[in-house]
Amino acid sequence: MTRIAVDAMGGDFGPSVIVRGAVDGARTLNGELLLVGKPGEIEAALGELELAGVSVDIVEANDVIGMDEHPAQAARRKPHSSIVVALQLIKDERADAVVSAGNSGAVMAAALMVLGRVPGIDRPAIASNMPTATSRTLLLDLGAVTDPKPGNLVQFAQMGQAYVQTVLGISNPSIGLLSNGEEPTKGSALVQQVHPLLKRMEGLNFVGNVEGKDVALGTVDIVVTDGFTGNVALKTAEGVATLMVDLLRAEITSTLPRKLAGLFLRPAFRAVRSKLDYAEIGGAALLGVNGAVIIAHGRSNARAIESAVGVAGRSADHDLAGAISRRVNQSAVPIT
User: Is 0.85 surpassed by the pTM of this model?
Assistant: First the structure.
């Protein structure tokens, strides 16, 4: 039975939302749930739920890392925080994966401190699926490394490949390098240095540079970029998705004839909203650390946490860290 530790104190909406989503996720996964945080608040949240068929344990952690705290300093200064204690459960082999909607920088810093890196990995990366016209595209890095070296991006591509192959089941995923043009001569100095490295790398289905539109069109399975650009792309996509849903809702309800037409089109609109909803994707995987660690959005609702627990379970069941280690060490990359 897969054991998922969930940081019950993370997120913007408090333990009641996190616990409800975690319980739903554990029920769907048929796994064991370890809720980490302040016992009194967790017990109060559990008291509102139906727990039949779900194995739940509470792990005490009476300290919390705030969203506005310095990530690395807080992770070191608060060893009894819910984030650090949850990650220690993996280290102690009491949990197989961790989900947290808390301070993402603190999750990364604590994961590196408690779990360490996968052998051969220089820097970790945050990766998440983006909704596209065809299916979903994995985008990384989303903010772990804002100033990477060329070799880091090559490792990001290798880690993304391992994730898509093992967790999503795509045997030979296509990989693109995010740039401002498809030509190899386009892009920043970093992009121009990385392009030939990816092209020469054995075992990578590298198709060349891709533009921002290709992320939404789903022309490749994996898009690789630096953490600064990736984070901006992610937040822009989230904003555009929210704008589209809000505009559709406003226009459909603006007149009586449109409201009537909207009744017939409601299933289609719900399907579109579902595809654009971050809650359906779950969390972002922290790739390159020695364990399955999923970072959920700070404003995650219960459905998003449920999805994140599912991603965590699949990552643990497929030994994601082991798959990354095997892939990266097949062909080591000089980090220059």
Answer: yes
